Amino acid sequence: MRFTVFILLLCAASLLRADDWPMEGKTPSHAAVTTDTPTPPFTLAWTFTAEGPITAAPVVKDGLLVVGAYDGVCYALDALTGAEVWRFHATRDLFFWAPAALGKGVAVIGDGGGVIQGRDAKTGESLWKVGTGGVISGGATLNGDTAYVGSMDGVLYALSIKTGRVRWRAGARWSLLAAPAVDADRGVCYAGAKDGRLYALYTIDGTSLWTAKLSEEAGPVGAPVVAGDRVLVSAHPGVLCCVKATTGAPLWSIATGAEEAGCAVADTAVLAGTRDGLSAFALDTGALRWAFHDAAPAARGVPVVSGKYVFFAARNGAVYALESATGKLAWKTTTGGPIDAGPVIANGRLYVTSTDGKVYCYHAPEKPPFRQE
Question: What is the rounded CA–CA span in Å between residue 342 and residue 300?
Answer without folding.
Answer: 7
